[in-house]
Amino acid sequence: MSDKVFRIGPIRPPSEANSLLIQVTNGCTWNKCRFCQLYRHTKFKAYSADSIRADIDNIAYWADRVRKYQRKGSPGTSWDIDGINAELAAFADDDERQCMYTVANWLLAGGENVFLQDGNSTALSSGRLTDVLVYLRQVFPQIKRITSYGRAENLSRSTAADYAELKAAGLDRIHSGFESGSDAVLTRINKGVTQEQQIRAGQSVKAGGIELSIYFMPGVGGKDLSASNAEGTAEVINAVDPDFVRVRTAAIKPGTELYQDWQEGKFELCSDDDKVREIRRVIELADESLSTYLVSDHMINLLQNVEGYIADKRMLQVIDRYLDLPEEDRRVFQLLRRTLRAYDLDDMKRLGSIERARLRNDVMKEDELGWSVRMNGYICRYV
Ligand code: SF4
User: Fold this and answer.
1) Are 276 and 218 in contact (CB under 8 A)?
2) For residue range 352-383, what is the model confidence (pLDDT) as tens digits?
3) N or C: which end of the chain has fewer CB within 10 A?
4) What is the position in ligand 1's atom list of the atom closest to the CA of 32?
5) Chosen CATH of 14-326 out of 3.80.30.20, 2.60.120.560, 3.40.50.720, 3.40.50.150
6) What pTM was estimated for this model as a whole?
């Protein structure tokens, strides 16, 4: 393998689509959540500071090669895209091509943001993480934002002073999959963290000056814990005031323990409407003093346009507009969303009357299946 290749891990948040990905750890330190199989076959590894620095040097090498195609002029900067594509097409080594492609995409998108992978990069000792952050900013002074994933349990072991040190070294935001703030749900999904630890973690991260983006999974507790999932999560949000809450609607994937539970009748899936009601309840319970911004930035969410400051209760109107529809229209919308034919409710207006009547008729016949469907390999349940 070429000595100019750097590691690229598999996962990043959608908000980091244009970020440079630097793999500082591999896998997840926990690997036991019952809904997750992302890193099941990966043994966790934290890379040494030397090894990460070598990757950063290689990224700098590719950045220099890409910058040859930069044209500075007025107005702003443009790129010789054909030149970049011609060089990419000429590579004999696929890994080298991938590295140059990754760096080119990053620079063409502005080259401002970096995401440190994988599932729990804050498991690196704080000294090692600090070294990496400082070196990264030395090599690429134009970087504006560096973010990373961190497990709440792990984050709860560090103090506000530790986070202030990481912030000073250049870490701007931590993404953390809280999933739920309900202890009952956290136990059911084996998240390995408690509500109290989540609150301590969140408050320390924020007090250290680092932005916090937490993930909420409506429906992950199942039908009997649906209210608890919403209420416990609202308690955490109210106690922490995270900068972002990102909604990731639960959909159960074959191969996970939760899927097995569902098959054995030990876990009752929430319907799409149950999950929407959970989101509604979280917004309803959120304190009006919060500065948290709620984002639905994933296609798995039924109502992807529910977005805004959580203290601004106008998002409830978007949800209520959906919940107030007749059942057959809610089902038609769910079907259109799950088959990628609609983004929001207004897209239903494009249906002709015959098509709408046909769909309404079809969707109301499916009760035998309990409206369990496969969507991109996930199990969802309608209404
Ligand atoms: S902590 Fe995250 S990556 Fe690790 S098992 Fe749980 S959900 Fe998966």
Assistant:
1) yes
2) 888 888 888 777 765 544 454 555 555 566 55
3) N
4) 5
5) 3.80.30.20
6) 0.91
